[in-house]
Structures are given as C-alpha cells and as structure tokens.
Amino acid sequence: MAITNYIAVLETMEGGSGVKTVKATYASSARAPDDLDTKLLRAMITKGIIEPISSVFVNLVNADFTAKQRGLRILEERIVLDGSPESPLDFIQVQIANVESKFSSTTSESGEIKVEGRVKDGIPHLTRVGSSEVVMAIGVDDQPSKEALKKIGEVLAIEEFVFLKL
C-alpha cells in the first residue's frame, strides 16, 4: 500500500497529540480476514501520527508499544471482498477523530479526517483525502520554483493542487 503517501498526509495534521483513536479499515480479497497481516500497515499509521509531534522514532518493532504508551488506540476493521488472492488488498481507509488540519477541506464537520488509498494493477495510489478525490500525487526531490507551481496551476485538466513541504 502507499505507506509513504499516508505518512505524508498524516504529517500535515496539527494537534496530533490529542488523537486518541484511529480506525483503519482494510478491504481485502484474502480468503479470511485473518489472512491479511496488518502489522506493518498499523506501524506506519502509528508512525505518521506520533513522529511529527514527538522525538520518538517509530518502527515495526516498537509501534504497538509506542502507541499504547501514548494512549493511542488503533482499531482495525477488515472487509472481505470477492477478488483474487494474488492481489489481496483492495483499499485502506484511515479515519482519525479530533484533529485539526492545515487544509480545512480535509476535515469533516465532526472533526475527523479520512484518508484512503487503493491498489490498482498492483500499484498503490492515494485516492481520497477528506471529501476530496486525489487525481494524482507526485513526489519531488526539491521544492519547485514559484514559476513551476504557477504553470502547474494553469493546466486545464488540474482542478486544484496543493504543494506540501514535509
């Protein structure tokens, strides 16, 4: 799954220290809900929430302990879909309550944010942040110039874009 994309989106949230519960929904075509090992996904969600607001380094080994130590509960729901076991994960949705975002359009009226990613043809894609569909996410090595950002904004096919500096 697009773990890096989720971390980038989660890092744009402010007030992460007030987050107490996160709900992660995994839609899978695995034969049974227990066939999908979500430990790595859960660790990356924990990393995206805790690292931006603390000096703690979160990894696969310490993620569950670090979340518990900070009072962060990660609830997981698995939805079994009809599909191919060769491509067992269809989408992941992460729902976080009581957050403030730098982008008000990403937060619902009840103060929660949902981030969703899907796998298409074996490639992970960030597909939704809040109520906004993500047409494309591009990672760059250096900050684009103001001129480059202006040219991107002038492309007719692009309805809206945001540059995130992490």
Automatic annotation (TrEMBL):
Signal peptide boundaries: none
Leading EC class: oxidoreductase
Catalytic activity as recorded in UniProt: (2R)-3-phosphoglycerate + NAD(+) = 3-phosphooxypyruvate + NADH + H(+)
Pfam family, one: PGDH_inter
Example of a GO MF term: phosphoglycerate dehydrogenase activity
Pathway, per record: Amino-acid biosynthesis; L-serine biosynthesis; L-serine from 3-phospho-D-glycerate: step 1/3
Domain D-3-phosphoglycerate dehydrogenase ASB, residue spans: 18-102
Coiled coil segments of this chain: none
EC id: 1.1.1.95
Name the record gives this protein: phosphoglycerate dehydrogenase
Organism: Quercus suber (Cork oak)
